Each structure stands twice: as C-alpha cells, then as structure tokens.
C-alpha cells in the first residue's frame, strides 16, 4: 500500500507542529522519520494512523483520500514505545486480541494457529503462556510487533519501538526488524531520533527539523551529501570552523578550501572527526592537543585551533602525540555552508 502526504499541516492551538509536509512512501518501502525531539515525527505518524487530523493538505492510502477511511478500516498496525501489552493477558492472548475483536471472523483454531505462526516469526515460540511481566523488555516489544501483525495490516507504524531498551538489544532488534520487513514487505513508517537506527534500518530516511522536511534520501545520500549544516550536524559528530568565502574558495586562517557554489561572505566549514589527520609540520590549520581519549579501537583527540575553536578527531590507537603538543590539522572532505 503506497502512502502519500500532500502539503500536510498540523497546528495545536497556535503552535504549528507540522509545516506543509509532502512525502511519498512506496508500497513495501521502509521509511524512517528522523529528527530531534519536537520536530513533528509522532504528529505525522498519528495523522497517517488517523489518530490526529491535518488542518490542511491530504493523506492518501493508495489512490484513496484517507480522510474518508475510518481508523479501524485503514489496515494500520502500530507499535509504540509505551504502548504497553495488556498485563493480565498472556503473550498468546495479547497477540490474539486484535483478531478476536476484528470484523474479520476467525475460528478459535484459526486464531490459535495464527498466534503460533506469529510467535515463531518473532522468535518467541514456547513463551505464549507467559505474562508480559515474565518476559524481557526486548521480548515485550517483539510481542507488540506480533500483535500489530496479527490482523494483517497494510501499513505498519512504529514509534520509537525500541526506545526504552539498552543499546545492544536495540541493535539486535533493529537488524531483526529489517529481516522481518524483508520477509513480509509491509509498507512501514518508522519514527526515531536515533541516527544509527534510521540508517541501519531504512530504505529511505526523512530528516525533520521544526516540522519541516530538511532532507530525504537513501542512507547513503543523506550521509554523503548532507544538504545543509543541520543535517550534517544531526547525522553524526561534526566539527565546525568559521570561514570566509571569496571567489569560490572558503578561507580558514588563510587556508583555502573549495566552495565553488557559494557566494562571497561568511560560511561554516564542517567536517567529520574521521576526516582529520594530525601533522607535525605542513600547511594545515594550526592547533594544540588538549586531551587524548582512549576508545576500544581508536583514539579521540581533543584539540584547539590557534583561533580558539575546539576540534575533535579520531586516530589509530598508536597515535603517539600528547597533551600540549602543537601541530597542524589536515582536513579532508570538508563541506562548506553559508552561515544562516
Ligand atoms: N496534543 C498536542 N497539543 C499541543 N502541542 C502538541 C501536541 N502534540 C504535540 N505537540 C507539540 O508539537 C510538536 C511536535 O511534537 P511531536 O510529538 O510530533 O514531536 P516528535 O518529533 O515526535 O518528538 P519526540 O521525539 O520528543 O517524540 C512539539 O513541540 C509538541 O510539544
């Protein structure tokens, strides 16, 4: 089922949470809505679900205007971070619940078979008789997904489903979710504020800031070609140095970087910690090492330029230089954005 949002606006009292968002999610695609807290992700998801109405614009399910489709007929399955399972029902009863109240009548045997099938799908066979309090948080979220899948949704909406779990469990669950998505191919909209989660999982990532889409594209496109400083900073660690653009070059303390598309004026030079090398001599940006931090497979160096800017960069664990040493920063793959 293809979903299309066309110039959708949502205002709460006087606060505009979503500003004219247009977006297409192809049938079978897994799209992540990614953005900081308050950027409008959940509001967009709730409008697709029919739990909230747009003030302006339209949402289409296939060719049909969703406004005309009642919530229970939209064929939407949800998993929310805090959408708790019913604590007094067993795991199997939780999964069966939607099938029992559905308009589609199923025999008790058909429901039992489907519950077994779903338990196997979410790798929880044998745990059907447990209560939610007797399984782990990660297992509970897998049950929540099985419950959402039970009624054969056409669209799956996931709002920070792994938000409350610790980092390792989250990583396992998102790889697992991607596998299930590849098996079932249900159109899925996934909300997260975790960049790595979005990049790991999604076919396409939609980045939001203050209710606007600031960039959308494949994980590769948004990582390799961030269209503005917000996206560059939001997607990972980024260093920033003030620069001045003159005749297609951005100058930082007399060192020139290519900036062919920018007009003359103030700009920011942004670059990743992995794209900096330390030189004892040469023509990089002069700096001094402030601290060297050890990581399991690398070293993170904190330095300060002679202009007073803090810079962080990553090196091999063998990096021999120490606090207080002076040298030069060789910056690769910088991106230059006009100062806004
Ligand atoms: N029912 C409501 N009444 C008033 N304001 C609301 C309501 N729901 C959301 N908002 C506001 O709309 C903005 C967007 O909220 P939304 O929950 O969509 O953001 P989000 O990107 O999902 O954030 P988070 O990651 O924190 O969940 C926020 O500023 C929020 O306070």
Automatic annotation (TrEMBL):
Classification via InterPro entries: AAA+_ATPase (IPR003593), ABC_SmlMolc_Importer (IPR050093), ABC_transporter-like_ATP-bd (IPR003439), ABC_transporter-like_CS (IPR017871), Mo/tungstate-bd_C_term_dom (IPR008995), P-loop_NTPase (IPR027417), Sulph_transpt1 (IPR005666)
Coiled-coil boundaries: none
UniProt KW keywords: ATP-binding, Nucleotide-binding, Sulfate transport, Translocase, Transport
Keyword Iron part of the UniProt annotation: no
GO biological processes: quaternary ammonium group transport
UniProt-recorded Gene Ontology molecular function terms: ABC-type sulfate transporter activity; ATP binding; ATP hydrolysis activity
GO cellular component, one term: ATP-binding cassette (ABC) transporter complex
A UniProt-annotated Pfam family: ABC_tran
ABC transporter domain location: 3-235
Record carries keyword Nucleotide-binding: yes
Similarity field: Belongs to the ABC transporter superfamily.
Protein's name in the database: Sulfate transport system ATP-binding protein
